[in-house]
């Protein structure tokens, strides 16, 4: 009997039978990922034994040198970046939230822009921006690294009707900062809501963050509104869960055991 694919599963008419088939497919896929990771580890170790350097292997595979060490069974760097909730206002007003946080922690940090342009709004982003799911919004997506290891993917979302044709829709980083650009466009900060969700990564997140099977991500979604309650900026940060520590601030004078 041939193995069933997701395309086959969606043609199963009974919804509970379909759910059962998909559950089995997910379990089989997880097992395959684990087996593939072990085989990859052996292949990288073989390449190292043949005399290839970590840098050469990293270049061929398109991953960071730190990730190669992990693939080969060596100790993975203890990359623990602190992400404060709620965000310190002084940090948010800096050139880069991530670089400011990393500097405070003495980490060797970097960032690279992945994409700037229009894309359809996912349901959770659309709800924050008060547009219809699938509506075109402006996305600014970048990856953050520590010691060459990717730790976060951060995407800023803006309503196209408010920010289309502005510098926020142009390629590259906004100088001197995104916050100053928003103020220059006439938006005064009113309030923000931050939510944190732990979940398995989607394929693109797993690839960009170089995650092994079984590793999860933590999604921090921050929606910022102006003083007149206009949805100005939605920031979705996808963090490699094992490489972060999340600190939650307390209200002064109201701590309890």
From TrEMBL:
<dbReference type="Pfam" id="PF13384">
    <property type="entry name" value="HTH_23"/>
</dbReference>
<protein>
    <submittedName>
        <fullName>GntR family transcriptional regulator</fullName>
    </submittedName>
</protein>
<dbReference type="Pfam" id="PF07702">
    <property type="entry name" value="UTRA"/>
</dbReference>
<feature type="domain" description="UbiC transcription regulator-associated">
    <location>
        <begin position="104"/>
        <end position="245"/>
    </location>
</feature>
<dbReference type="InterPro" id="IPR011663">
    <property type="entry name" value="UTRA"/>
</dbReference>
<dbReference type="InterPro" id="IPR028978">
    <property type="entry name" value="Chorismate_lyase_/UTRA_dom_sf"/>
</dbReference>
<dbReference type="InterPro" id="IPR050679">
    <property type="entry name" value="Bact_HTH_transcr_reg"/>
</dbReference>
């Amino acid at each position: 009997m041939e193995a069933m694919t997701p395309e086959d599963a969606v043609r199963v008419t009974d919804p509970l039978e379909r759910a059962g088939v998909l559950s089995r497919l997910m379990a089989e896929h997880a097992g395959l990922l684990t087996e593939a990771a072990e085989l990859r580890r052996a292949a990288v170790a073989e390449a190292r034994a043949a005399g290839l350097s970590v840098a050469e292997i990293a270049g061929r595979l398109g991953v960071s040198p730190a990730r190669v060490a992990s693939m080969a069974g060596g100790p993975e760097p203890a990359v623990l970046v602190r992400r404060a909730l709620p965000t310190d206002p002084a940090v948010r007003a800096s050139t880069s939230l991530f670089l400011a946080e990393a500097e405070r922690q003495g980490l060797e940090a970097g960032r690279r822009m992945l994409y700037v342009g229009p894309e359809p709004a996912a349901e959770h982003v659309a709800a924050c921006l008060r547009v219809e799911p699938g509506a075109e919004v402006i996305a600014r997506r970048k990856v953050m690294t520590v010691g060459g290891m990717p730790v976060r993917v951060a995407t800023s979302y803006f309503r196209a009707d408010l920010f289309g044709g502005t510098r926020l829709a142009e390629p590259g980083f906004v100088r001197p900062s995104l916050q100053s650009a928003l103020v220059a466009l006439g938006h005064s900060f009113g309030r923000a809501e931050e939510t944190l969700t732990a979940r398995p990564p989607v394929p693109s997140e797993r690839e960009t963050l170089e995650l092994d099977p079984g590793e999860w991500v933590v999604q921090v979604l921050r929606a910022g509104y102006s003083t007149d309650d206009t949805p100005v900026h939605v920031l979705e940060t996808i963090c490699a869960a094992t490489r972060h520590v999340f600190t939650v601030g307390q209200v002064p004078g109201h701590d309890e055991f």
